[in-house]
Design brief:
Layout: H1 3-13, E1 18-19, H2 21-38, E2 42-49, H3 52-55, H4 59-75, E3 81-84, E4 90-95, H5 99-116, E5 125-132, H6 139-155, H7 157-160, H8 168-176, E6 181-182, E7 185-191, H9 199-214, E8 220-228, H10 234-240, E9 247-254, E10 266-269, E11 278-285, E12 289-296, E13 301-307, H11 310-323
Parallel strand pairs: 1-3, 8-9, 9-10
Antiparallel strand pairs: 2-4, 2-5, 3-4, 6-7, 7-13, 8-11, 11-12, 12-13
Helix pairs in contact: 4-5, 8-11, 9-10
Length: about 325
């Protein structure tokens, strides 16, 4: 199917606010030129649909795509532009939107799409995003980065383990209970009698705080879950000397009045027995993603899992926020 044929199909089948590939490509080029000239940012969200070409050739597929398009147009801002990309996926261009804004937009779109096409679960839909100039300085480079991330999401532990339909603690238990050795995540034991002592967990967290302090202007988010929040925690001591940072740090656990005086962090006082035996750290910014979950066993030992898979880290943060009705934010 050539570009002209796709353009005709787009105009006939979809609402007027849903544009063809030529328009999307030209608008993206103009947006990249504008961002370069005025030193601003913009982002794209790519909605990847498996077998898009074949979907456009069947009545069932076209009805499914109409539902997708309707959900997309109902979720985007009036300044956003949606249509077909050159590789026959759904593309949304988000003017004046940074990395974290694009992540939140993708989450909003994902929720809308899930509700709209719940009964059509046989069609796999995956979302990704890319931001100028972080992921490229031309629209073509951003499109390529977003397309690459769709494939990365498909291969991520989040998708492979089917985490989307699970609760936070269900996912945490599954990860710490698995024997995983892979490039995108691995399990290990720490504590008494193990090669790694329990202090290894503190060392990892100290490295994260050092990274936050090294680039204080870089936005990010960190959750540190522990049994009791106190000024004596190594993480708290390091935060007190880190200086002002743009990273939002949340300390999760039980605590008393003095915890409100901790510098560079916001305490989240939660009385949940699961937090007494499971410790976690989630860290996400534009360049780094990391998650560590450790479940305490008998005999002062810990079953741990850690990962640098950004899809899994982002998903764990969102699941945790939803589990405890916290504000959904990523930076």
């Amino acid at each position: 199917m050539d570009i002209d044929t796709k353009s005709v199909l787009t105009k006939k089948l979809f609402p007027s606010r849903f544009y063809d590939a030529f328009f999307i490509s030209e608008y993206g080029r103009i947006e990249a030129t504008r961002a370069t000239r005025y030193n601003t940012c913009f982002s794209v969200v790519l909605i990847g649909v498996d077998g898009m070409s074949s979907l456009m050739e069947s009545l069932e597929g076209l009805e499914f795509l109409k539902k997708l398009v309707s959900a997309v147009l109902g979720s985007v801002r009036s300044c956003d532009v949606a249509g077909l990309s050159e590789d026959r996926q759904i593309m949304v261009i988000l003017p004046e939107t940074d990395y974290f804004g694009a992540l939140m937009a993708a989450k909003k779109l994902s929720r809308a799409l899930s509700q709209a096409v719940r009964e059509d679960s046989k069609f796999q839909v995956l979302l990704s995003q890319a931001t100028f100039p972080r992921d490229g300085r031309t629209f073509q480079e951003l499109s390529a980065a977003a397309s690459r991330r769709v494939n990365e999401r498909k291969d991520s532990l989040w998708e492979r383990l089917g985490c989307k339909g699970k609760l936070f603690w269900e996912i945490a238990g599954s990860l710490t209970g698995r024997n995983t050795t892979a490039f995108d995540g691995a399990s290990f034991d720490a504590g008494s009698g193990q090669d790694l002592s329990e202090f290894f967990i503190d060392q990892i967290n100290e490295l994260i705080i050092k990274e936050i302090a090294r680039t204080p202007q870089r936005r990010g988010i960190m959750y540190y879950g522990t049994r009791n929040i106190s000024a004596s925690l190594p993480v708290v001591k390091m935060l007190s000397t880190a200086g002002s940072t743009a990273t939002k740090v949340f300390l999760v656990g039980e605590g008393e009045g003095s915890v409100w005086e901790i510098r560079n962090a916001m305490p989240l006082l939660l009385d949940d027995p699961r937090l007494k035996e499971t410790f976690f750290t989630f860290f996400l910014n534009e360049d780094t993603a990391y998650a560590l979950i450790c479940k305490e066993n008998w005999g002062a030992t810990y079953s741990c899992f850690h990962t640098a898979d950004p899809v899994l880290v982002e998903g764990l943060i969102t699941k945790f926020q939803n589990e405890y009705s916290l504000q959904e934010q990523l930076g």
